[in-house]
Known about the structure:
heterodimer
Amino acid sequence: MLNEANLFFIFLSAFLINNIxxxxxxxLCSFIGISTNVKSSIGMGIAVVFVxxxxxxxxxxxxxxxxxxxxxxxxxxxxxxxxxxxFVQFEEMIIRKKLPxxxxxFGIYLPLITTNCAILASAFLGIDYKLSFIQNIFFSxxxxxxxxxxxxxxxxxxxxxxxxxxPENFKGIPIAFILAALMSLAFLxxxxxxxx
Amino acid sequence: xxxxxxxxxxxFLNGIWKENPILFIMLGLCPVLxxxxAVRDALGMGIAVIFVxxxSNFVISLIRKIVPNHVRIPVxxxxxxxxxxxxxxxxxxxSPQIHKNLGVYLPLIVVNCIILGRAEGFAxxxxxxxxxxxxxxxxxGFTLIIFIISLIRExxxxxxxxxxxxxxxxxxxxLIMIMPPGAFFVIGFLIALKQKIxxxxxxx
Lengths: 196, 204
């Protein structure tokens, strides 16, 4: 089980083997929408890493110290989404005030992140796998860096494919999905790395 | 765009083709790709989405005049999360197998962009009957696409339909279709097909 593996394997499993975009299909809306441009993909990727790690730790604490002691596990969905949404709002305010340069670079991606299912999913999955707090941090770091890694590679390929001669009907979104399929095929190869 | 009519059947039909959530607006792709490996799970997901979408559209259009404008998004999210929790527990009680197969994708309906998109774009501006029709139409449009994708994937990848073998024992399944890359291939080809149909229509 995942909660008995060591931290490095937890990270690697979330990063490559169960890649959030290509194997688990989460966060696809932003993936297809933003990856037309390398620069904004890098911005989005880094913002996702930052928010996921913070939001997952926060929701882990909320779940284990607030919901479990009072027997309120059924409120999980509602509390997590509210925790994440308010955290993103809060963070946006702080960054705008204290780090204006960073805000100019990543600020516009922050509101988009609230509805990014990758973040809520990593909060749920950490709870479902019964991870400890430290394991949860590594797990969410793995998931979000997997997202960041794939979206940057994908954006690079998509910029190239813009000038390639592809069939008329496949232009735009369809070819992006075919590309994602090929990348997902490549990522399936990591499955043999180790068993979890 | 506020619809003045009390009851407009066009709203219902819009969701099925003209504004189909998957093919045209490209929202809520995650569950479509993730749970379309088998027809039964896909239909379970479709029904869950229809229920949540119709229910949240109904409640949101009821309260649309009381909710202050600047806190509307958190209010919508709470309404949606409530319906998702109800669906989650009903499915767990009545069909535990489907609940297990859908796994984490069921609670994730709450961040599915279609639902918040329809709440914000339609239900918060239109009357109750039209909002219910819109929720039903969009939900059925979603279910139709997830059904088609899962049909293609299950028949080609497993040789079965609803778990019943239909292609005989000599058929050698394309294993790739039920694995993650197959989902991306199928949706890629479907959207290409839609672009072809749309182009053909414009020429006429």
